[in-house]
Give the backbone structure.
Amino acid sequence: MSFFTKETIDEKNNMLLIFTAMLILIFSIFVIIKFESPKGVAVALGAVIIAGVLIIVFI
């Protein structure tokens, strides 16, 4: 007998994914504020794209 059902495990995984994507987006804002160079903007843009792809693919 399992303690968690499939639905609750999926819900927990989705919440963890959303939390991770929010951390990536916060990191990208920090990079833009800290490094105002084209390299910093490129890293922040890459982080936003990665967060978007994670959300689209896994949810």
Observations:
- The two ends are 27 Å apart (CA to CA).
